[in-house]
Design brief:
The complex is a heterodimer. Chain A is mainly alpha-helical. Helix content of chain A is about 75%, strand content about 0%. Chain A is built from 14 helices and no strands. Chain A has helices spanning about 5-35, 40-45, 50-60, 65-80, 95-125, 135-145, 150-160, 185-190, 195-230, 235-240, 245-285, 290-295, 305-330, 335-345. Chain B is built from 21 helices and 23 strands. In chain B, the strands form four sheets. Chain B has an eight-stranded mixed β-sheet with strand order 6-7-8-3-9-10-12-11, sandwiched between helices. Chain B starts with 18 loop residues before the first strand and ends in a 10-residue tail after the last strand. In chain B, helix 7 (about 195-210) packs across helix 20 (about 580-590). Among the domains of chain B are: about 115-180, no CATH class; about 345-425 and about 505-650, P-loop containing nucleotide triphosphate hydrolases (Rossmann fold), CATH 3.40.50.300. Classes of the chains: A mainly alpha, B alpha/beta. Bound molecules: adenosine-5'-triphosphate, iron/sulfur cluster (2 copies) and magnesium ion (MG). Adenosine-5'-triphosphate binds next to strand 1, strand 2 and helix 1 of chain B. Chain B: One of its GO terms (cellular component) is plasma membrane. Chain B: GO terms for molecular function: ATP binding; ATP hydrolysis activity. Chain B: This is Glutathione import ATP-binding protein GsiA.
């Protein structure tokens, strides 16, 4: 049977998973909202609002209906791409998200990239017992055992306060940065031929992404080191050695590819957790992302905003895991073989079933 | 008896300045769990051009460590410390740089490891793995053809998991060969393979050294294999070379007491079935004495001196040396042979039937083919009498273990009937039963646990445990030790004791000895047979070793592709096989010469073209490989033809009646 058929089934299954997650998450959110005492309308209209104004506003927002009906209204809007209006900003949540999301995505992307690169380095170097690995390990592990916000503040004190090498807060120091097409300043700078923007954006990214990445890097590195060491004792690695290949080639071409599975799973897990880290770090660095947006939405009980953010994170999580699983399939031909066979018999194997969270 | 073991080496090797590897005064220490141990002690060794040197010895004797030392591949994590000299093609590998060593491996050294399933990179196509040894496609194809790979182009495009075990090992050999190395270190290259595939691979290796003059260090624990292939044998025990010399002489007239024991404990086709197997009368588990001769604790000839001083090397003949203080045979060393076993022919067919399997079929849902299921057993019958021992033999994948699991009730038959004329369920001893004992429990606790289904008082339980311990010869000291601290042989005994503490009427054994050292196999077989006799327990014995099958059982059933293709009295099956497949299995036994003419002895050429041992889908499953196949074989599946009431074969060429 063809690989593309397998691929389509796989993606369909993941979309189904995303739908289930969205339904579940929104249901939970509505339930929480209904039992909470926050009164967004009060917050919106200010302390002096008359009861009749409040009631009128409630009707306008649809808050006079029972929770059940509100939920269905919300889902109905969702199908039409409508995430509702933010109580606080009084703009559609969708356009708020479009404003804040790119900043978060850019930070998360570089943090993940950094985590993966550092993790690979740590894993390969320490498994290969190369010289100088100890120092790298010590630094990374010390970093990983420090709480993220301390790391961030420490970084600020040294690189901004003492050395004045890096900027403290915000996302960019240049006025009127390009506003598209990707929303990533580092990339838009290049696309618009304005390399100054790219360089400046990297300066702003450096501290926050390091603060987010070090923990996940160590987790990924440890898992990788474990499976590499296991792989090194396997015969096919001995075979590779007996061919007279260089140590680096043996480690990367032979051992690494067969050890990627656990490290990839760990990366998926860490990517999910990383959003939590990003939210905290955005606060420290006043990074204008959805963490920042959420932090402002919570005190004002801005339910549609919170729900929108949650949905984006949930769907993002499914997407990341799908990518990780595809990468795993790519890395291991045996798995590909088995999975393709299993799609036919409708028996999901390993972690690749639809409800994997 | 030793005569059957020895074959003349196929080519005469010119020794002398053709030396490709030399090891002088080699000592190796390795570190594990912060403790350094002295693994190889004063090893001397030379390998000439085109010479095959067999390294034999029991598990843990240091064979693999020596092989890895020659490759310069001792694991870094064990912080190897090496003293002495190892030269390959004149370069001292202990003192050259990492780069030079890699260069040496790239051009002149190769390795083949035991497990064909794990020695190829699972996520790389064969082509890419081949490319790492030779960039030229022609050369890769040539090497693959050399090892009788039928369609090398298509094999290159596959992943290892898409090849059979035999194919993988041949690919491995092709890879080792492609650079035309001076030396190949082969560490048990055939141990994981069926005898038929093993015979092909051994033949291949002999050819290659003749064609290319490649030298081999061939690690094996099987003297039959050594006899088949080696010019020189080196006997290793606890890191010491005890005897070294020409294969033929050593295996015919072993000079060292340990070599004598190794040869004597080998089970051959000539083993008298009415005799117990010879075992070392001294404690098998005595361990090694550290300063003196490592064999001293087990040696019948041992002197006081042996315990404290390792003997110097003395010459027996040219190129033949031993290290022993007192090599002359002592009268005591003669086999202790007890005549107790029943003659096979006396087997009583009138004894009561304990287990019947009628027309058993089994198919598994297939994972990879859409067409659904795969038939693994077809119409298998078995009638088992009280106290009878039946062996199932056949290549891997022939359905032996599945049938056994169905008999044990661990698997459900797809159709057919199992009748147990008894309330007790059969019990099962596995190949690695010994290693699956809960390590932190004491043997006593393990045995009690096996009893727990019964309702007995504490005292009764204690007594049962003592009784069974006495039966399987476990001392009180062993009873109180934890499973983790036992030797391999002791563990296997405990596993057997667990099965017989409440004796079943049928004991099912799946390769119970194939994980044991030769010196322990005899003990385990003696134990199983005496239990079967004293408890009147019937046994079904799955083994790939026909010599073992012939010795332990009264009846042999030969399986191929899920069918029984031949069945009969074990002596008759072995001495006068009816089915061409049985004949091939017998011919494949290493170190067993069936034909007597020199022509046959030399030119026995296993059929390595045999379509990679694939079974034919229609007609006789053996048709692809059968030298006698006729037209009807490819279209019609032969049915069992009886030549007497208990003897049948399923082959179109066998004449006789139906039942
Ligand atoms: N990496 C290692 N570190 C420390 N000790 C080791 C290491 N590898 C092997 N040993 C020890 O060295 C001794 C010899 O082991 P080796 O693997 O060479 O035996 P072997 O003769 O090949 O046995 P087998 O027939 O079971 O393969 C054993 O006592 C083993 O425990
Ligand atoms: S006689 Fe002594 S030296 Fe010779 S094998 Fe026996 S114990 Fe070892
Ligand atoms: S039936 Fe034919 S192919 Fe099968 S073993 Fe007999 S002769 Fe050979
Ligand atoms: Mg070994």
């Amino acid at each position: 049977m063809s690989g593309s058929f397998f691929f389509i089934k796989f993606i369909l299954r993941r979309i189904a998973a995303a739908v289930v997650i969205v339904l579940g998450l929104t249901a939970v959110l509505f339930f929480l909202q209904s039992i909470s005492h926050s009164n967004p309308v009060h917050a919106m209209l200010g302390a002096g609002a008359t009861p009749s104004a409040i009631a009128a506003e409630k009707v306008k927002l649809g808050l006079d209906h029972p929770v059940f009906v509100q939920y269905f209204n919300y889902l109905y809007g969702l199908i039409h791409g409508n995430l509702g209006m933010s109580y606080r900003t009084r703009r559609p949540v969708a356009s708020d998200l479009a404003t804040y999301l790119p900043a978060t995505l850019e930070l998360a992307f570089y943090s993940l990239l950094l985590a993966v690169v550092l993790g690979l380095l740590l894993g390969v170097l320490s498994a290969g017992e190369f010289r100088g690995t100890g120092v790298l390990r010590a630094i990374l592990i010390a970093g990983a055992s420090t709480p993220q916000f301390l790391l961030a503040i420490g970084g600020l004190l040294i690189f901004y306060g003492k050395l004045n090498l890096l900027p403290a807060t915000g996302r960019i120091g240049i006025a009127n940065p390009p506003s598209g097409p990707t929303g990533f300043y580092t990339i838009d700078g290049i696309l618009n031929g304005n390399f100054g923007v790219t360089i400046d954006a990297f300066k702003y990214l450096l501290l926050p992404s390091f603060s987010v990445a070090i923990g996940p890097a160590v987790s990924i590195g440890r898992v990788l080191r474990g499976s590499l060491i296991e792989a090194i004792s396997l015969y096919f690695v001995k075979t590779a050695n007996s061919k007279g290949l260089s140590r680096v080639r043996v480690l990367t071409v032979h051992a690494l590819r067969n050890s990627l599975g656990p490290a990839l799973s760990m990366t998926g897990l860490q990517a999910g957790l990383m959003f939590a880290g990003v939210v905290v770090i955005e606060d420290v660095f006043a990074w204008p992302g959805i963490g920042y947006y959420t932090a402002q939405s919570i005190p004002s009980g801005d339910f549609p905003a919170i729900a929108g953010v949650t949905l984006v994170l949930g769907v993002g999580y499914v997407i990341i895991n799908t990518i990780v699983d595809l990468a795993q399939l790519f890395a291991d031909p045996r798995l590909r073989h088995l999975e393709m066979a299993n799609v036919k018999t409708k028996k999901p194997l390993l972690g690749l079933s639809a409800n994997q969270g | 008896m030793e005569d059957t073991l020895v074959s003349p080496p196929d080519i005469q090797i010119a020794r002398g300045n053709n030396e490709i590897a030399s090891v002088v005064g080699l000592n190796v220490w390795l570190r594990r769990a912060r403790q350094e141990s002295h693994i190889l002690k004063d090893v001397d060794l030379k390998i000439g051009k085109g010479e095959i040197v067999a390294l034999v010895g029991e598990s843990g004797s240091g064979k693999s460590v020596l092989g890895m030392t020659l490759l310069g591949l001792l694991p870094k994590s064990s912080r190897p410390r090496i003293e002495g000299e190892v030269s390959i093609l004149g370069s001292k590998i202990t003192s050259i740089s990492q780069k030079e060593l890699q260069g040496l491996r790239r051009h002149s050294l190769s390795a083949i490891f035991q497990d064909p399933m794990s020695s190829l990179n699972p996520s790389m196509k064969i082509a890419s793995q081949m490319k790492e040894v030779t960039k030229e496609l022609d050369r890769a194809l040539f090497a693959l053809r050399q090892v009788a790979i039928k369609e090398p182009e298509s094999v290159l495009g596959r992943y290892p998991f898409e090849l059979s075990g035999g194919q993988r090992q041949r690919v491995m050999i092709a890879m080792a060969l492609a650079k035309e190395p001076a030396l190949i270190v082969a560490d048990e290259p055939t141990t994981a393979l069926d005898v038929s595939v093993q015979a092909q691979i051994l033949y291949l290796i002999k050819q290659l050294r003749a064609d290319f003059g490649t030298g081999f260090l061939f690690v094996t624990h099987d003297l039959g294999v050594a006899a088949e292939i080696a010019d020189t044998v080196v006997v290793l025990l606890a890191g010491r070379v005890l005897e070294k010399g020409p294969t033929k002489e050593i295996l015919s007239f072993p000079a060292h007491p340990y070599t004598k024991e190794l040869i004597a404990s080998r089970l051959t086709m000539d083993q008298d079935q009415s005799l117990r197997l010879r075992t070392n009368p001294k404690d098998q588990f005595a361990g090694f004495s550290s300063d003196g001769c490592p064999y001293a604790n087990r040696c019948e000839n041992a002197l006081d001196l042996c315990l404290v001083e390792f003997p110097g090397v003395s010459m027996v003949q040219d190129n033949w040396t031993i290290a022993c203080h007192n090599p002359s045979p002592s009268p005591k060393a003669v086999a202790v042979e007890i005549k107790t076993m029943e003659r096979r022919s006396d087997l009583d067919w009138n004894k009561k039937v304990v287990l019947e399997a009628i027309a058993i079929e089994k198919s598994f849902q297939s994972r990879t083919s859409r067409s659904g299921s795969r038939q693994v057993l077809t119409n298998v019958d078995l009638t088992l009498h009280q106290g009878e021992v039946v062996s199932l033999v056949g290549e891997s994948g022939s359905g032996k273990s599945t049938f056994l699991r169905i008999l044990a009730g661990l698997e459900k038959e797809s159709s057919g009937t199992i009748i147990r004329h008894d309330d007790t369920m059969p019990k099962m001893v596995f190949q690695d039963s010994g290693s699956s004992l809960t390590p932190w429990l004491s043997v006593r606790e393990l045995l009690k646990e096996a009893l727990s289904s019964k309702t007995l008082s504490k005292a009764e339980i204690a007594k049962e445990v003592e009784d069974v311990a006495a039966k399987v010869d476990l001392s009180t000291q062993v009873l109180n030790s934890r499973a983790a601290s036992l030797s391999g042989g002791q563990r296997q005994r405990v596993a057997i004791a667990r099965c017989v503490i409440s004796p079943p009427s049928v004991l099912l054994c799946d390769e119970p000895t194939s994980a044991l050292d030769a010196s322990l196999v005899a003990g385990a077989l003696n134990l199983l047979l005496s239990l079967s006799e004293s408890l009147e327990m019937a046994m079904v014995f799955v083994t790939h070793d026909l010599a073992v099958a012939r010795y332990v059982s009264s009846r042999i059933m030969v399986m191929l592709g899920g069918r029984v293709v031949e069945s009969g009295d074990s002596n008759e099956v072995c001495s006068n096989p009816l089915h061409p497949y049985t004949r091939m299995l017998l011919d494949s036994l290493p170190g067993e010469r069936r034909g007597n003419s020199p022509q046959e002895a030399l030119g026995r050429q296993p059929d390595i073209s045999g379509v990679d041992n694939e079974l034919s889908a229609v007609g006789c499953a053996f048709a692809n490989r059968c030298p006698n196949a006729i037209e009807i074989c490819r279209t019609t599946t032969p049915v069992a033809t009886y030549i007497s009431s208990n003897r049948y074969a399923a082959c179109h060429l066998v004449k006789g009646g139906t039942k």
